[in-house]
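Case study: RagB/SusD family nutrient uptake outer membrane protein.
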Amino acid sequence: MGLLNRKIIYSFIALMAISTLEACKKDFLEVTPKGVLVAEKVSDYNQLLNSLSTAVMPNLVSGDEAAGIEPYFTGETLPENQKSFRWENDIYLPDATSMEWTMIMQMIYQYNKVINEVMDAKDGSEEQKQSLMAEARACRAWGYFMMVNFYGKPYNEATAAADLAVPKVLISDVSQTKFTRATVKEIYDLVIDDLTASLPYLPTALTNRLRMSKPAAEGLLGKVYAFMGQYDKALPQLNAAINDLPGASIPVGLYDFQKELAPGGAFTPISPITGPSRGNLNIDQEVLFLRQTVNYFNFLFSGVVLNTKAVGLYLPGDYRRAFLTPNPFADFANVYPNGMLRTWGSGAVNNVGVSVPDIYLLRAECKSRGNDLAGAVADMEAFRKMRMPAGEAVIPAAIAADKVTLTIFILNERIREFPIQGYRWFDMRRLSVDPVYKSTVGTTHTVYDMNGTVKGTYTLRPERLVFRIPLYIANANPDIPQNP
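Here is what the predicted structure looks like once written out:
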């Protein structure tokens, strides 16, 4: 398929995405007019927690593992993705809504409704009500954890009480018109309080990936502590999450990639056009809590790829290489320069909720940082045996014996595991305030043509580790200070 035909496809996709953005209301709390969304019974509140909203996240191509490729970068990549790749100040136009802000805050509105009202529902047992309120609080914690990592500075104990984050909205009232930004500390405190309070009432058995379970909340709480640099507090929560996984009533755990890429495996059939078949997150056993984002770079878009350095992190036998291709979409006669590879095989979505691989890798990182090198190595080698031949899974002795080197190895494993999925951007943020590992954060994005000639270079400024408040929010709410 030629560039012209692909442009038609991408133009249609872009039009659909823009239409969705423009359909969102300017007030980020406007889900329905006040008084229309009526819930009275426990079943009504239960239904409010069943929805799956698909948000467009701005950080997918912001990580330092990415490179741009012309002519696809400017010819096919959506403008907001180009701007986030270039680390520009404002990603969206002044009259365009921001999906991540709007969608997450609208989800928080629904969670608040359950939290505020379910205990007064007309029917149902006290146990049912407590469980639903706990689930809503844990879901709200996920929403605010995402928001604080988009719009607040990376957590720094010395400055978190003064650094501004996002408005802390705790009631489901769309008539609110005045908002102020809570601090990073206040939002993290809310997230921890919500998760801690919810844990005793959440179901231990995972029965539905759309719903919050105890192991998902434990994993999320562990991640929150890790992002705060409190690895000693993170480790028990991550351990608890992993220990609770066997109680699930649906398949949950790590995939053995060798098995699943073989004939009859979960990732087959392997299409010569779109790669392995891993696009249905509802049945993906590595999804513990499903909140998905549109990601066309795993599917159709050809303009942002893994750069040469990131590709070099994979060993030759790594089965995850099956999810990487040297060719632009449907231009199989062309090969990316300098060994760069495009991600494919995961459909047009990826999970930004809670994932099993994330929990395992965070646990290994916490063990390494806590000087349990043997424990970290054991975790990593067990994980890697699910991703590559046993011989390649072994961590070299020189790496295994050194805390800093081993931790960097684990951080690089996260790049190998989550390429062009936005995970690296969040890791870059937390590492940027880490005195030992901040040097591992890349600060350059490069755009090449198909011959490998550099067409543009962009430098990450420290202030752009935080996204600016979307202009339509800032313009409509003058009491919300803008980020630099």
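For the exam, be able to explain this: The chain has one domain: 3-476.
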